[in-house]
Amino acid sequence: MKQSFPYNLKKGIIFVGLASLPLFSGCEKDKPEPSQPQKHNVELVYGTNPNTQWQNISMDTIYKYNADPKVDTIFMIPEQTDQYATLSANGCRTVIDLLRPRHNLNPNKVFGKGDLVLNSGITNNHPDIVRFFADTLRYNVRN
Q1: Is the pTM of this model over 0.85?
Q2: Domain boundaries in the chain?
């Protein structure tokens, strides 16, 4: 005569076997992922008076934030949107010569932000200046 396990014992073995599957199959998924630092943006406001002119966006400051892996984007924000409104083309080119190396330090990370007013003579007659401020630095240029 053939001996068989009692029915309840068979059910118990099957239940324990099935119940333990998730314990062994999920081991790889339970490993904690290395935490990524929370990225943030830096906003550097610069103005036209001697106290705020270029100190807030000095090359050392841009280098420091560019090297920080927690910084996603560095924004250069004019203190007054109309601070360049009275500049001539030569005056704008002087400002461009100061802003370009800051942007070029990391063209994927350093930008302008906000509105920037240029006089209508610049916006109408000097597309290269407008392109730098609007396209390269991403200011909202208006007159």
Answers
A1: no
A2: 40-142
